Amino acid sequence: MNTGGDDATKGGDSSGNEVRDDDDDSSGSSDDTIHAVPAPKINFFRQRQRKERDHLRESVTALEAQLVALQTQHAAAAALESPWRRRATLLKADNAYALLENDQLRQTLRAHIAFGHALRATTWPAPPTVSLVVDVPWRARRLSANAAQRHNAARAISWHQYTQLTRAMVAGGLVDCAVEKTSSVPKSWPGDIVVVETATCRLLAVDFEAVADTLWAVMVGGIPDVERPNFVLETFGDDVVYVDAPRRFAGLRGRNVDVIRRSKEVKRHVIVSRSILQDDVRCLDDDVAFVCNEEKWVVIDGSDGPAKTSVKFFMRSTPPQLGAARSSLEAMKEMETVVHNLMVDAIAMARGTERTVMQFL
């Protein structure tokens, strides 16, 4: 037997190690390629989204912490502010809003003027429609004949007066009322408008709620004032009353109808009043020579303790509007002494109301 030939046929070396031919290597490599798992692809878009989300979460956390710190800092600073600083901040905000509103109205007016000058050009765009001054109830001081609009206008007018309380007390020097006083000062506003401001401060040893109830009753006609009687015309809720207070000024018969609001607070009551210049239900009589234009603020403060009450009264009045009976040059000439008459009338009104109230305390 030729065993050597068989070994040679099988293939091998002298050391006995098996030698694989090229065909075996090719077959094994092909099998590995078929059964190998492909490497996963990296989704760079989702990876970038995750990074952005994590960054946003960190930013939100940091901003929330910053907001809490700023709120804490603001609360601490507000607690240390003086009352005068708080009032000044509020008045500054009111002035900024008024200037912004004035600028917007000026821009709208310019647009309407430009539109009027360019009516011949059919392609000229019309300016946007805005609410003009006369459309705002508290600016127009008008009560319409429509019941719902009338009710809303009366409440809006009286509420606006209440929002102006701080400004009125500052203007009258009544914020810190330590001593009794009475003053009446004429002022000139832009547009040659004459304004008379009357301020009165009284200190009473009576409970402030009793004073407030009595003063309210006098102003709405519940307690008759012989010199200046008031008559209730309508009520717009429990806290707003529409009254008629007949007035004579410079020897002429006039009309004075007011919307009066009462606001009850913890340690004080506030009563505000505003003249109505036009009433679509109650038209002017032919013999009415003028329509009063006044606004009043009364603060009955009992924060100093029981049986210690301060009454702060501030009234601003302008020359009355002339009625149809006196809309002539002669009537205007009769108003030459209007400032003096306004001052005398305002002081007389304050003192007359004070006397009536004191009779029932």
UniProtKB/TrEMBL annotation:
Residues 1-40 are annotated as: Disordered. Residues 46-73 form a coiled coil. It comes from the Eukaryota. Keywords: Coiled coil. This is Aste57867_15894 protein.
